[in-house]
Structures are given as structure tokens and as C-alpha cells.
Amino acid sequence: MMSIKEHFNKPENLLLAMAFIMPLIFSVWMVLLNNFVIEKASFTGKEIGILQSLREIPGFLAFTVIYVLLFIKEQKLAIISLAVTAIGVIMTGFFPSVLGLYLTTVIMSIGFHYFETVNQSLTMQWIDKDKTAHFLGRLLSVKSAASLLAFSSIWLMMEKFSWSYQSTYALFGALGLVLTICLALSFKEFPVKVEQEKSLILRKRYWLFYALTFFSGARRQIFTVFAGFLMVEKFGYSVADISALFLINYVFNWLFAAKIGKLIGIIGERRVLKFEYIGLITIFIAYGFVENSTIAASLYVIDHLFFALAIAIKTYFQKIAKPEDLASSAGVSFSINHIAAVVIPALLGLVWIYNPSWVFYIGAGFACCSLILSHFIPCQPREGVEFRYQETS
């Protein structure tokens, strides 16, 4: 009879546990960032753009993970990367200056992006194709629960007990580090189902996945960098206000992400992504015109809800990819995702100074490109049927 420890010691449980820890610490870094940099380091759109570009450089270099895997196994690298992220978050509050924030951001980001790259690869390897969409939805639900805990704790500590930025960053970073050490000690090393390629792979037949990933990265930057900055700079939202917005966002994800994942498995990636991109075009144009803080907050919440639909890009790739390509392709896809992420924040930070609305109109343009690309996805993607025209050939 299987013991409780043996029943617990499964790959999917490790993925779920890591999925809880990462947002618990990263959400704190993210939700405090705009207020922290404006209040303590006098950031403008220019500095926040540069900081976010620096944050994305490790993401752009995520393809190097394949070379690190020559010396260390993926599961162990995921744990180490999680620990580095926690250390970066601990350090953030102790360096409230432009250069200090640039440095701590890069440290945190190295851990974050290496973790996300390896974690995506492990998920695709460990979880069966027919269960992946639903499992990715479960992961989003767990991430949302962790984020809810983080945001509600921040609101309580900073609004009711007047905690400092430094203490808040240090507490959550240290908590994440302790939990990561516990994971390392609790889970055994799981075997690899298919030996992964240990070289950089770019395949012509994956071009649609690469293109969708590129524009997904561009869209994410508009939301991550500038939508939140709009709330603080234009509408004067406080830390408590931003935390409340994030709480609303993650309550929806917690309640519906797993259902969305299951829905993707039923109606298919092409329909889901087309719906997402039409919605994003509308939202980004509305951001450019909005003058009411309540309407802006509503757009922010709706915008965040669409992130769950991006699961469809990952499940599309898992269905068309060779099993041995997953680890290498995870690194490549993260790098492609971050080509836009490295350039866009700095460039659009300059556009922001001239006219913030134009940043969101450019975002609508990115969503239009994604919508066009989504028409190439087949109804039933699989190896050998990567594009829609192949279904009728």
C-alpha cells in the first residue's frame, strides 16, 4: 500500500508547489514596484522603461539554459532558480536608488526567467498531452491563490500596520527561500521520460509558435509595465489600491483558470486565441482614451483575465512538437518572447513621455498581428499538422 509520503512525492505535486512559491514572492516585487520606485527613487517613465528592459534581458538570454543543463538536471536547476529569485526580492528593499534597483532587478530576474523556462519544459515533459490544458489551468489557480495571499498580506501590513517597503520585501523573500529549501529536501529526483536535446534548436515548422510567442511577449509588456504605471501616475492609485486591483484579478484566475484550461481542450486553441486577440485590441484602444479611474481599473482587470487564454499557445506547441525538443524549445521560446520585452519598455518609455495613449495604440497593433497569425492554427494541431492549410492537403 502506497504511503502518504509516496503518494505526495509526484512530479505534478512538485510543479504545483513551485507554482505556489514563485508568485508568492514575485507578486510582492511586482505590486510594490511602481509605488516604490516613484516614492523612493523618483522614477519617471524613462527610468521605469529602462528597469523593465533590464529585467527582461535574462528572459532574452533564456536560451542559455540549454547549456546550463549540460551540467545540472532540470529539476535541480528549477529549485536553484527559485532560490535566486527569493534572494533578489530580499535585496530589493535595501537599495532604493536607480542603480540599486537596476542591480537587484537583474538578480531577481535571472532566477525568475531560468525558473519559468525550466518549469515550462518540465510541465510539458511530465504531464500527458490530453491533460496539459487542464493542468496548466490548475497551475494558474494555484499561482492565483499564492498571489491572493501575497496581495492581501501586503494590504494588511502596509495599510493597517504601516510596514516599510524594505521589511515587506525582506519578509516575503525570506519566506520564499525557506519554502524552496523545504521543497529541495522533500521531493525526490524524478526520472526524465524522453532524453532532451542538449543543443539549441530552431525548426522551420515551429515558426507559427515562435511568431505567436513574440507578439505575446510584446503584449505582456504593455500590461506589465505601462498599464500599472498608468494607474499610479495618471490616476494616483496607492499601494493599497493597486493591491486591491490585483486581488480582484487573481480571485477570477483562482476561480476560473482551471475551467478555462479545460475549455481550451474542448473548443481548441485557434478559437480561444482569436477571441483573446479581438478582446485585447478593444481593451488597448480603450486604454488610450480612458479618463475615468474606475473605467481604467475595470479595463485593467479585464485585461488581466485574458492572460489565462494564453495557455493555448503552450498547448498548441506541445501538440506539434517532438517530445525531445521540449527543453530546448522552452529556452528558445522564452528568448523569442523577450526579444520584444527587452526593447519595448525602453522605447515605449520614451513614447510615454510624449503621449501615453500612443503606447496602448501600439499595443493594439501587436494584438492585430497576433489575430492574423491565429488564423493559421489548425483545428486539431499535431505533429505533421502544424498549420491550418495542412488539414485540407
SSE string, helices as H and strands as E: HHHHHHHHHHHHHHH
Radius of gyration: 20 Å
Q: What's the β-strand tally? A: 0
Average pLDDT reading: 82
Structural class: mainly alpha
Beta-strand content:
under 5%
What is the molecular shape?
A: globular
The low-pLDDT segments are: none
N-to-C span: 52 Å
- The helical percent reads over 70%
Number of helices: 15
Biggest sheet statistics: none
Could you write a compact summary of the structure shown?
The chain is mostly helical.
Q: Would you kindly provide a written description of the structure presented here, covering whatever features stand out?
A:
The chain has helices at residues 4-8, 11-41, 45-60, 65-68, 74-92, 98-126, 129-160, 165-186, 207-233, 239-267, 269-289, 293-305, 311-320, 326-354, 356-374. It is mostly helical. Helix 3 packs antiparallel against helix 14 and helix 5 (74-92) packs antiparallel against helix 8 (165-186). The protein is globular, with a radius of gyration of 20 Å. The protein starts with a helix and ends in a 19-residue tail after the last helix. The mean pLDDT is 82.
Write the layout of secondary structure elements.
Blueprint (H helix, E strand, L loop, with lengths): L3 H5 L2 H31 L3 H16 L4 H4 L5 H19 L5 H29 L2 H32 L4 H22 L20 H27 L5 H29 L1 H21 L3 H13 L5 H10 L5 H29 L1 H19 L19
Helix pairs in contact: 2-5, 2-6, 2-7, 2-8, 3-6, 3-14, 5-6, 5-8, 6-14, 7-10, 7-13, 9-12, 9-14, 9-15, 10-12, 11-12, 11-13, 11-15, 14-15
